[in-house]
TrEMBL record:
<dbReference type="InterPro" id="IPR020084">
    <property type="entry name" value="NUDIX_hydrolase_CS"/>
</dbReference>
<dbReference type="InterPro" id="IPR000086">
    <property type="entry name" value="NUDIX_hydrolase_dom"/>
</dbReference>
<dbReference type="InterPro" id="IPR047127">
    <property type="entry name" value="MutT-like"/>
</dbReference>
<comment type="similarity">
    <text>Belongs to the Nudix hydrolase family.</text>
</comment>
<keyword id="KW-0479">Metal-binding</keyword>
<keyword id="KW-0460">Magnesium</keyword>
<keyword id="KW-0515">Mutator protein</keyword>
<keyword id="KW-0235">DNA replication</keyword>
<keyword id="KW-0234">DNA repair</keyword>
<dbReference type="InterPro" id="IPR020476">
    <property type="entry name" value="Nudix_hydrolase"/>
</dbReference>
<dbReference type="InterPro" id="IPR015797">
    <property type="entry name" value="NUDIX_hydrolase-like_dom_sf"/>
</dbReference>
<protein>
    <recommendedName>
        <fullName>8-oxo-dGTP diphosphatase</fullName>
        <ecNumber>3.6.1.55</ecNumber>
    </recommendedName>
</protein>
<keyword id="KW-0227">DNA damage</keyword>
<dbReference type="Pfam" id="PF00293">
    <property type="entry name" value="NUDIX"/>
</dbReference>
<feature type="domain" description="Nudix hydrolase">
    <location>
        <begin position="8"/>
        <end position="133"/>
    </location>
</feature>
<keyword id="KW-0378">Hydrolase</keyword>
Amino acid sequence: MADEVLAAPIDVAVGILMKPNGDVLLGQRPEGKPYAGYWEFPGGKVEAGEAIFDALKREFMEELGIEILSAEAWCGVQHVYPHAHVRLHFYISRAWSGEPQSLEGQAFAWQGSVGVEPLLPATIPLIEWLDRLRYEA
């Protein structure tokens, strides 16, 4: 139904873990989810009444078993997928505790120049912006 596309966007907290050498962590969407097999930055939906940064910390603990110690808000992107209208809130974290683990059965990979495919459509332009941030600083 057309009204569904016009519904308020779903807020999603997205984290970019960045190592000192500029490598970033990408995860692969698991089977059973829209765009299964596509690569994206980890994160998830913000629950009602939840602060975006709190959602980010919760999602990283649930999905990867790591604690985000600090992160800076980076950018916001809206994207309309066939299944959902999302407002993505991106954070860059250079400080976390623990090593990422696949707690939801998803594959993940540290990437310098990003070589995994296919990338989730909303992720593609961010890779270019991120490369400027990582390699021109």
